[in-house]
Design a protein that fits this description.
The protein contains seven helices and ten strands. It is of the alpha/beta class. Strands 6-7-8-3-9-10 form a six-stranded mixed β-sheet, with helices on both faces. Bound molecules: adenosine-5'-triphosphate and magnesium ion. The site of adenosine-5'-triphosphate (ATP) has 13 residues, from strand 1, strand 2 and helix 1.
Length: 227
């Protein structure tokens, strides 16, 4: 059964340096697992903020996020852990890799946490890294990679455990057209083959054209461009 992430009347404002910024205004929208979504919007329009709220990592000012009908604020600590391990795979705009670990270790750490064996994890990690075009970087440390290579490690890490949704914040932001297309093709194959719902923020028309639904964040509202 296809799961949903539903936003109900989500608003978010920040107050800093005596300035009040209302970034998201009363957004109501449902994302379906069996669809793919691109969210565009100019820099500062609130794309990353929205992604953090969807993942329950940033509190909204008003409204609620529901995962499959359950308000994510009502999750226990254990349910929240499971939500972040098995329901959503996150690719942040900054990849946040652990520099002390190799590329492969960064990717497999989520599997080790949930008790999979090292050999199983290494096998899957190598397969994923091959799919994102980084087979030859398995033993490298993240700090020697380019920004785009680090982003691709983050995509492999996000997809390590089978998840219901991939939330990827500008995953092609640092990639050239060719590498970007290959990454988008891989992400789309995860939807086709494993039923992963895709929510991808991007400025890139190539990403938009690969997704089923194209949304735009504009003046705090989420508008549907193409469905
Ligand atoms: N922690 C914070 N404190 C204060 N303001 C914030 C905070 N986080 C985000 N903002 C503000 O919220 C607005 C939206 O930021 P956000 O990072 O969500 O935009 P974005 O659409 O992801 O931009 P970009 O395309 O540059 O990544 C910006 O005006 C930003 O300055
Ligand atoms: Mg952003």
């Amino acid at each position: 059964m296809s799961k949903q992430i539903s936003l109900e009347n989500i608003s978010k404002s920040f107050s800093t340096d005596n300035r009040f910024v209302e970034v998201l205004k009363n957004i109501t929208y449902s994302f379906e697992q069996n669809k793919s979504y691109a969210i565009s919007g100019v820099s500062g329009s609130g794309k990353s903020t929205l992604m953090h709220i969807i993942a329950g990592l940033e509190p909204q000012s008003k409204g609620a996020v529901y995962f499959d009908g359950v308000n994510i604020e009502s999750f226990s600590k254990k349910q929240k852990q499971n939500f972040l391990r098995f329901s959503v795979g996150l690719v942040f705009q900054e990849p946040f890799l652990i520099n002390e670990l190799s590329v492969l270790e960064n990717v497999i750490v989520k599997g080790l946490i949930v008790g999979q064996t090292l050999s199983e994890c290494k096998k899957r990690g190598c397969e994923l890294l091959e799919k994102v075009g980084l087979k030859d970087k398995i033993d490298s440390r993240p700090h020697v990679l380019s920004g785009g290579q680090r982003q691709r490690v983050a995509v492999a890490r996000a997809l390590f455990n089978p998840v219901d949704f991939l939330l990827a914040d500008e995953p092609t932001g640092s990639l050239d057209q060719q590498t970007g297309s290959e990454l988008v093709e891989f992400i789309c194959s995860c939807k086709q083959d494993c039923g992963v719902g895709l929510i991808v923020t991007s400025h890139d028309e190539m990403v938009a054209s690969a997704m089923d639904c194209v949304l735009e964040l504009k003046s705090g509202k989420l508008e549907q461009r193409i469905f």
